[in-house]
């Protein structure tokens, strides 16, 4: 029962809302069917599947709100979770930023589900592990890795008549392959909605080649070098950049996007919206319809989501915000889709060509343990890999 149809979800959530005695009620239904395999030291260590369906009920009385969750779906359990959420709401203090539930929205077609991924089973997972283990053994290397595949569904319904539903699939793979003496190490990761795009043998070979190629690594003197960031390293920084683009933090002076007035400046802006902060080649946007990283076309509160530009030609063109802050400041509400994405436009030069055209530089495969040091400058710390 972990993945139910849109018709079944609507019927179930209508039944839940019929139990409600609150001023407003919102239900979130989330189902998952996930599988995984993990291997280390050239042998499979764990493998399994997880299935679950959970219901979260949010009840509000005026400015008071309470949430309760459950994964039992008989009538008595459904009524129990509604009553529990109402009980918690009555005990809660007023939330001055509480917003009413949204009314029905119009959603564009979603393309997040691939039957090929939903049908992934133990055979595919075992092959993914073997694609790293067998060639590693032949070259006296030690392989470890993890593959997980998921088939999920999400449904949202509230007492204002809003209803949203989506099903999605995903498969992700990562591998670390080291030389037996520990002097060389290689890493790779891949992530897709459509498993037909996943080639674990090809990915594992990249980690194998990096492992062998790093054995005779030489110490580099401190200095200035051209740095090439592979996608996994880039996205670690990109995500932190866009996730720090909150309007409220900027307006309140807590962000790198807060505007610092010049001496004597009259009526200065609170933030840097519309200002150029990056090279004109930098453009970042979100798009639920992107063919490589599709997402749902609605946010967790059921708000409809479409393509949103965040940075355009180096200029800040949008902020993330809440419905409350958008209303307070007269701004456009910019919700983030469930499973949201961040896409940075760029050139068409391949990684191989970038390396070939770099006389002396450093290739960073990934960044690890990134932590923010100063939100007002977006200074981060971390390790290279």
Q: Which term fits the overall shape?
A: globular
Low-confidence stretches: none
Number of strands: 14
The arrangement of helices and strands along the chain is: HEEEHHHEEEHEHHEEEHEHEEE
What does this structure look like?
Strand 4 (141-158) and strand 5 (163-179) form a beta hairpin. This protein is an alpha+beta fold and 385 residues long. Helices cover 25% and strands 31% of the residues. The two termini are 42 Å apart. The model has no long low-confidence stretch (mean pLDDT 95). The protein has helices at 6-18, 75-91, 115-118, 122-138, 200-213, 231-243, 247-251, 323-329, 351-356, and strands at residues 24-40, 43-61, 64-70, 141-158, 163-179, 185-192, 226-229, 284-286, 308-312, 315-316, 343-344, 361-364, 367-374, 379-384. A 6-stranded antiparallel β-sheet has the order 3-2-1-4-5-6.
Please sum up the structure shown:
The chain has 385 residues and is α+β, with helices and mostly antiparallel strands.
Question: What's the arrangement of secondary structure elements?
Answer:
Blueprint: H1 6-18, E1 24-40, E2 43-61, E3 64-70, H2 75-91, H3 115-118, H4 122-138, E4 141-158, E5 163-179, E6 185-192, H5 200-213, E7 226-229, H6 231-243, H7 247-251, E8 284-286, E9 308-312, E10 315-316, H8 323-329, E11 343-344, H9 351-356, E12 361-364, E13 367-374, E14 379-384
Parallel strand pairs: 7-12
Antiparallel strand pairs: 1-2, 1-4, 2-3, 4-5, 5-6, 8-9, 8-11, 9-10, 13-14
Helix pairs in contact: 4-5
